[in-house]
Amino acid sequence: xxxxxxxxxxxxxxxxxxxxxxxxxxxxxxxxxxxxxxxxxxxxxxxxxxxxxxxxxxxxxxxxxxxxxxxxxxxxxxxxxxxxxxxxxxxxxxxxxxxxxxxxxxxxxxxxxx
Amino acid sequence: xxxxxxxxxxxxxxxxxxxxxxxxxxxxxxxxxxxxxxxxxxxxxxxxxxxxxxxxxxxxxxxxxxxxxxxxxxxxxxxxxxxxxxxxxxxxxxxxxxxxxxxxxxxxxx
Lengths: 114, 110
Known about the structure:
With about 110 residues, chain A is mainly beta.
């Protein structure tokens, strides 16, 4: 199993550009989520999904969109990049419900917005 | 909402024992998780406590006191490879989404 994969590993954008961060998992997990991590800080939840076709907002959703058309994939779209979105983005997945405390993380995407 | 407090930095020497504390405020408490993250890497799950008491997994143990809204991660026989950031986290909400603390940077000195 590959686990959770993310592409790209690194990305540089100019202010105002849009892009999609890809995330896929092969563990048949119902729950998937996106976090951002800024220097010296913990992970903050952007959006999450409890299954195909179901998404919801986390703590810091502004400027980001998500969709979940399959169990495996959960892309994150930046609509109009801003320097404040410079961060490391992690995708995670877990079994839904009582075991959601054990999340499996992808390797991250390091995004710089200039 | 949820909030978690943990020390920003802890330093210890190889072979020693170190304790990383976490206090939390949350509505609808389910339990306390711990994650490890090496520089440049992804967080990895270490342990979870739903009930009061100590859970041991090899050199790592985790403790929870629900009445005190407090937990800690205990690392024994420290090794250089234990140098990393450690995060406590609580699941909450209908989907039990995780809220993370800001992390404790552990430095292990030779």
